[in-house]
Write a structure and sequence with these properties.
Strand order of the largest sheet: 3-2-1-4-5-7-12
Shape: globular
Helix content: 25-40%
Largest sheet: 7 strands, parallel
Radius of gyration: 22 Å
Length: 405
């Protein structure tokens, strides 16, 4: 089977490509035109994430790079090149997209919605009727913050936390419409927040949580005149006693920030390597002969991460002291107002919902289960390569994280 993949240089796409090459002799990479040498970037990224030397040496013969522009009709290709590409494919994985939580809707629609539309046009044009495997997000559930979210749900009744969620929701609607129009099956894969324990590197795709870190750092830099002189993180719980006047330096020179959140809230975070493995395993399952519609799967962890753990991680990444409160402060500091300018970021600290993945665990069994994601693992994927979690005196070292099944 000849497969094509969009987003191969991205955080998830890189791992999908590695996994696809386990079972496919070669893969066509639909790379963004003008973005540089995709083969070199892929090779370097795979090297940094531990790919064997022999595997890397064979990549030039196993990857066909086609430069495209997902925002343009025919992916920016000539009519002839578009037809030849379409006719050569048996499957199309669409992983490319923008995850800018602070982006505006028109910008995100150009990438996430129109990009999906043009990939579907490629699938429709292929004589071999390539199957579509569309990477969405579990967060198409939108601003529904409690209860259980099921895989067959797709509605906008609760609204959305940000434009990113809405754009991914609209992209899923396109996949359903395309499937009905052409009578063709499609696979929709909805991962939760993807993380890794691979340390950051300038030549690796950005960790999704680095977006949140950058926003908090920029807000702090813009509103706090005196930079902190102490960078060690606080050891107190995020819901501890008041730590000073909002916006003013607290312990260790850390400004105090009040943000709406729930002490018993939880977020679903999943190692990206495990997510890629689950997605490819699902795509390899035999489909029912009568199945011509859209099959949707939540690719999520079976155990959520408590919101206080996420807060502790943010406090280690950014010199802030974060207090969870029940409602927006009536007297926000300049820093709090700046952070609140991106409501789609901090809104996740109020979530207590659960994503149902019964179908995935039933189909894959132990292969669907992953070790818990704790603070150590989260820090490993965001801290500098020499970074280690500072611990209070006398605290025993945590055991090494157990790998996923």
């Amino acid at each position: 089977m000849h497969v094509a993949l969009t987003g191969a240089t991205g955080f998830l796409g890189l791992r999908l490509l590695r996994r696809l090459l386990d079972t496919h002799t070669w893969v066509t990479v639909l790379a963004h035109a003008g973005s540089g040498d995709a083969l070199h970037r892929i090779t370097r990224s795979l090297e940094l994430t531990g790919a064997p030397r022999a595997f890397l040496a064979g990549l030039p013969e196993r990857l066909r790079v086609v430069e495209t522009d997902l925002a343009l009709p025919r992916l920016g290709l000539s009519a002839r090149a578009f037809r030849e590409l379409a006719d050569s494919l048996n499957a199309i994985w669409h992983s490319a997209g923008s995850i800018h939580l602070e982006g505006d809707l028109p910008e995100l629609r150009r990438t996430n919605v129109e990009g999906t539309r043009h990939v579907l046009e490629l699938a429709a044009a292929g004589r071999a009727e390539p199957v579509v495997r569309h990477v969405s997000t579990a967060f198409v559930a939108g601003a529904r913050r409690t209860g259980v979210v099921y895989e067959d749900e797709l509605d906008d009744g609760a609204g959305f936390e940000n434009a990113y969620e809405q754009s991914k929701y609209e992209a899923e609607l396109l996949v359903h419409a395309w499937s009905r129009e052409h009578g063709r099956p499609a696979l929709v894969l909805r991962p939760s927040i993807l993380v890794t324990d691979v340390p950051p590197h300038p030549e690796l795709p950005s960790h999704p949580l680095q977006v949140v870190e950058r926003i908090l750092r920029d807000a702090r830099r813009a509103t706090v005149a005196a930079p902190p002189t102490v960078t060690s993180p606080p050891t107190g719980a995020p819901d501890g006693p008041s730590r000073g006047t909002p916006g003013s330096p607290g312990p260790g020179g850390r400004p105090r920030v009040r943000t709406v959140g729930h002490q018993r809230g939880r977020l679903n975070l999943l190692p990206v390597e495990h997510a890629a493995d689950v997605m490819v395993r699902l795509s390899e399952l035999p489909s029912s002969p009568s199945s011509r519609g859209v099959e949707t799967y939540h690719v999520v962890h079976d155990r959520d991460v408590p919101v206080p753990t996420v807060v502790a991680l943010l406090e280690r990444l950014v010199p802030l002291s974060i207090d969870l409160v029940d409602a927006k402060p009536q007297d926000p500091s300049a820093l709090e107002a700046m952070i609140d300018f991106y409501p789609g970021i901090t809104a996740y600290l109020t979530h207590r919902r659960r994503f149902d993945d019964t179908r995935v665990r039933t189909l894959l069994g132990p292969a669907a289960v992953c070790a818990p994601v704790g603070l150590d693992r989260l820090w490993s994927g965001l801290a500098p390569r020499s970074g280690a979690i500072p611990r209070p005196p006398g605290t025993p070292s945590a055991p090494a994280p157990t790998p996923c099944a």
